[in-house]
Write a structure and sequence with these properties.
single chain, C-type_lectin_CS, C-type_lectin-like/link_sf, Mannose-Binding Protein A, Chain A, 6 helices, alpha+beta, 318 residues, 16 strands
Length: 318
Amino acid sequence: DLFFILFPLLDHMIDLYEYHFIGENMKWKEAQEYCRKSYTDLATVSKQTDMKRLLDSTTEQYRAGAWIGLQRDWCWSQPGVEFNESKWSPGQPDNYGNQENCVWMKNDTWDDDSCSRPYNFICYDGENMWRIDPTVMTWLDAQSYCREHHTDLISGVKQLEDFKTQGQNDANRIFWIGLFRDCWSWSDGSSFSFRSWDKDEPEKTLILIKKNMIWEEGLYYCRDHYRHLVSITNQGEQLWVQERAKTASTPYVWLGLRYTCTLDFWFWVTDETVRYTNWGPGQSGDDCNMSGAMDREGTHQSVKMIDDDHKFNFICSK
């Protein structure tokens, strides 16, 4: 619980958010409900001037903590499919143990679960065509398989409804679907990408894990025990990661950087766009099995493309 909440009231005539500050102690969901009932929603910040006005609306004694409308949300594996409907089982999602970030379906309802559990899965093949795979895989393996051999994991309520209409659903089985918790969004639905994270948030609390794992194992370990494999989006973050990497027991440490051969681009597992990598010299390639690693020696250009079957230490963000 935090000591106060900030509220915006949108003035459409001047296209500005009017921030209101309430000195009450609530959980985030309670604050969201209160804001929606009494004002418009929890505070949205679209640019730096908004950030300044938001801070000006508080007092020094309360600046240590206040809820705004930014939340970690659910998103679909298929690009362009929006998360706007859900079919959760009663009491779900519960994020038991703070490690349930992927979703399976049974009896036409959903439950969240650890992404490292093996289940059957449903691939979408385009134009209302699906494939129920008889093998069991972790969520990430299932996603990779569907993207390589079909289109993607089945995504969106419409695809699931069409799948059910065609009578392909086996009510007694569990299937991974393409829903996972790994996106940041604003409570009022705004699409603003502006962020003004504090110097220690959200990726700067880093934990070097001195276990030798392949990239995918490191990904699941971080998601199950902390948050993510670490992302690097600017030079300051790179320097921070380099400091952690210096004490590694392997020559490289895995980062949350991955290449998708299906979509032909590199991406961070925390959903940030790859605008900054600072690749080491001679680094280029589009191998489907490549992931990003940090050179333990911490040179200026120290991010390497390495086959993800190598076993290295890795860095998690809390």
